[in-house]
Design a protein that fits this description.
By secondary structure, the protein is of the alpha+beta class. It has twelve helices and ten strands. Strands 2-1-10-9-8-7 form a six-stranded antiparallel beta sheet, sandwiched between helices. Strands 3-6 form a two-stranded antiparallel sheet.
Length: about 400
């Protein structure tokens, strides 16, 4: 959600949604759009036509499928488009599971905050006090809160590969959380903890290990016990090392150099995720994520002052750009259409996902886009178009 206004405008103009609702062209062969009309109350904007325009034409160069759910008091809209897989051309399954990527961080943050409510984790205690054998002296002052809001100054773990082709060659490598943390904390710190913000996975990997230390249980089981189970999120799970997706899913594809030297799409649905763990391992559905974001923002997952941690941006600059910090505990914030929109995007190869909502829950958005440029430097155009269609252009 962090992109310059010029880039956002350029992308939305290409999609044809910057100027408002557009006519819906015919879908590409094999695509489908199964949508429910928005039921917006009088005076509320209806995003349905603009959302349909974004989905029209799938599959296309940047995405092979997309699943979308808009909810809240301002109206309900459901849509899907594209294909289950390029070989068969069958319509995309709107109930399919997908890799949620960094949306996982919201679940991890909620689990840590629930443990904080029980007095088992103190956000102001240092990570080293929980994991003294793992966190060295150079990071002795890093607190749990700083792990969760990306102000800890710990660099990323050293993982092999610099291109998508190299990462694909290492897609089945196994990494343990402890190995990832040891690789990261062996390096010099990026900045003094609490003075800047740098969005990285490593803070959430350490937070997952703290969950295990204080509970004596696996991180995955604790998320299941404290979040997934109580909310009835039956289609959301952690792969626990499995490289494939369980249950129905729409195939993910990534643009890369192929074996014959040409550039094209490769099916990347089967890909290990042990490098992400508590920061990006989750598999879910749009229905489950919609329920989660609705309950979270209503204060039924994390309560009281601890919930406010998720809506409080640290007053520090971004380490790279110098702009104000945009990430809180678990979430990020962007002003769209004249109001604050809080949420989290995520990317794994072949898949982009997002959850978003206004603070009062009046409009929620969940999407999964089978992006062919997932984890790229630029925002996927279909994903960006859905966000703008649901909420409006950035202020």
């Amino acid at each position: 959600m962090r992109k310059s206004l010029r880039a956002l405008l350029a992308a939305t103009l290409v999609l044809g949604v910057a100027g408002g609702p557009a006519a819906v062209p015919a879908l590409a062969a094999g695509g489908t759009a199964a949508t429910a009309p928005a039921t917006a109350p009088a005076g509320a904007s209806d995003p349905g036509e603009a959302l349909s325009a974004v989905l029209a034409g799938l599959p296309r160069a940047d995405a092979t499928a997309a699943l979308v759910r808009v909810g809240g008091r301002e109206g309900v809209w459901r849509g899907s488009a594209g294909v289950h897989d390029l070989e068969s051309g069958a319509p995309a399954d709107p109930a399919a599971r997908f890799r949620a990527g960094s949306v996982t961080k919201v679940f991890t943050a909620a689990t840590v905050l629930r443990l904080a409510a029980e007095g088992r984790i103190d956000l102001d205690r240092t990570a080293r006090s929980y994991l003294p054998e793992l966190i060295p002296g150079r990071y002795a002052t890093v607190t749990v809160r700083q792990l969760l809001n990306h102000t800890h100054g710990i660099p990323a773990a050293d993982l092999p590969g610099e291109t998508v082709e190299e990462w694909y060659a290492h897609r089945f490598d196994r990494h343990t959380p402890v190995e990832l943390v040891r690789s990261a904390v062996a390096q010099p710190r990026e900045f003094r903890p609490g003075t800047r913000q740098h969005y990285l996975n490593i803070g959430y990997t350490i937070a997952g290990l703290i969950v295990e230390r204080v509970t004596g249980d696996s991180f995955e089981k604790q998320v299941e016990r404290r979040v997934l189970g109580p909310l009835g999120l039956r289609d959301t799970y952690f792969p626990r090392g499995a490289a494939g997706l369980a249950g129905p899913y729409n195939h993910g594809y990534q643009t890369m150099r192929l074996d014959d030297g040409t550039t094209g799409l490769r099916d990347v649905s089967v890909w290990g995720t042990s490098d992400a763990w508590a920061a990006g391992d989750l598999v879910s559905t749009t229905a489950d994520l919609e329920r989660f974001v609705r309950e979270l923002f209503a204060g039924r997952v994390v309560r009281g002052p601890l919930l406010e941690e998720m809506f409080t941006l640290p007053k520090v600059p971004d380490a790279a750009s110098g702009e104000p910090a945009a990430y809180s505990v678990g979430l990020s914030m962007k002003r769209l259409g004249g109001r604050e929109v809080w949420g989290k995007t995520g990317g794994r190869w072949g898949y982009n996902a997002a959850v978003a909502s206004t603070r009062d829950g009046s409009r929620t958005l969940v999407y999964s886009v089978n992006a062919t440029d997932a984890k790229g430097q630029d925002v996927n155009r279909t994903a960006l178009g859905l966000m703008v269609a649901a909420y409006g252009l950035p202020d």
